[in-house]
């Protein structure tokens, strides 16, 4: 390929086309493609690269705790999770309809996995997504010396995405005034944008968790109006995986660890530490 052509492509920022051009030139010569067919192929290459990079940027901007894929979720482990219901959510129709979703259940049953996997699907469908735990939200708004202009900017970050995911509601009581900011987010997004939340505590406990009965009542009144509530019960995936890991260890290794003196620097394998992931 001519160096001048490479330079033109660089100036035009057609990096996807530049990557595939030599292959496409050979393909065009071998298959006797006409000019229009060749142009269509190289433009498809450029669009594919740009689409892939846009997804990567949006995944980073979403701030997922972990990148999850719904195909990796073990639905067979927990019969209370209806696969068809989750796959329906993954079509993102509820986002287009500006509806909300609440996942309720104890820690470890897969709530965080599912909402992050659905968020990843939303990004692939071209939708802006933001993932925050309820503690991230509190820190964002209750940071030291936040000016009104800075708080407006933070609020804008929560209002812009087509899908906002708020995880870990109910892990512990929230700092004072957190309910005010959560209420404003829910009120401003109500019937305008979709919100997904997870909680390991029943709805009747939210007033105590938020520390503000009127705010909690108003939050639930608006959020639940158009929300699908998914109740998950059952055992913890994390504990199951920890038990499988412990079972899979060689017997010699288990014997050696059991002989480690207390405080002797051996790393405890069981019981597993609780993750900050609310499930």
Residues in β-strands, percent: 5-15%
What number is the mean pLDDT? 84
The percent of residues in helical segments reads 40-55%
Gyration radius over CA: 25 Å
Count of helical stretches: 13
N→C terminal distance: 53 Å
CATH superfamily name of the largest domain? P-loop containing nucleotide triphosphate hydrolases
Q: Which spans of ≥5 residues are poorly predicted at pLDDT below 50?
A: 254-278
CATH architecture of the largest domain, by name, is 3-Layer(aba) Sandwich
CATH class (first level) name of the largest domain: Alpha Beta
Q: What structural class is derived from the secondary structure elements?
A: alpha/beta
Approximate shape = elongated
Q: Within the CATH hierarchy, at the fold level, what is the topology of the largest domain?
A: Rossmann fold
Number of domains: 2
Q: Oligomeric status of the shown chains? A: single chain
Largest sheet geometry: 5 strands, parallel
Number of strands: 5
- The string of secondary-structure elements, in order, is HHHHHEHEHHEHEHHEHH
Strand order of the largest sheet: 2-3-4-1-5
């Amino acid at each position: 390929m001519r160096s001048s052509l490479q330079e033109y492509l660089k100036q035009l920022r057609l990096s996807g086309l530049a990557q595939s051009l030599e292959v496409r030139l050979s393909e065009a010569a071998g298959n006797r493609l006409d000019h229009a067919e060749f142009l269509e192929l190289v433009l498809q290459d450029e669009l594919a690269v740009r689409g892939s990079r846009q997804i990567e940027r949006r995944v980073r901007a979403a701030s997922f705790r972990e990148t999850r894929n719904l195909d990796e979720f073990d639905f067979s482990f927990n019969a209370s999770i209806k696969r068809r219901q989750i796959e329906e959510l993954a079509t993102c129709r509820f986002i287009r309809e500006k509806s909300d979703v609440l996942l309720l259940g104890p820690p470890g049953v897969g709530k965080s996995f599912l909402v992050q996997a659905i968020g990843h699907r939303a990004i692939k469908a071209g939708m802006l997504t933001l993932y925050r735990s309820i503690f991230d939200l509190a820190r964002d708004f209750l940071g030291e010396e936040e000016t009104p202009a800075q708080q407006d900017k933070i609020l804008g970050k929560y209002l812009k995405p087509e899908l906002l995911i708020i995880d870990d509601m109910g892990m512990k009581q929230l700092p004072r005034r957190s309910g005010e900011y959560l209420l404003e987010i829910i009120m401003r997004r109500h019937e305008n944008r979709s919100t997904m939340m997870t909680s390991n505590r029943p709805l009747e406990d939210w007033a105590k968790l938020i520390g503000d009965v009127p705010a909690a009542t108003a939050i639930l009144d608006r959020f639940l109006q158009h929300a699908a509530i998914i109740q998950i019960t059952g055992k913890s995936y994390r504990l199951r995986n920890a038990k499988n890991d412990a079972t899979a260890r060689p017997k010699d290794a288990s014997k050696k660890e059991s002989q480690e003196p207390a405080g002797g620097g051996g790393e405890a394998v069981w019981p597993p530490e609780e993750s900050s992931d609310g499930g």
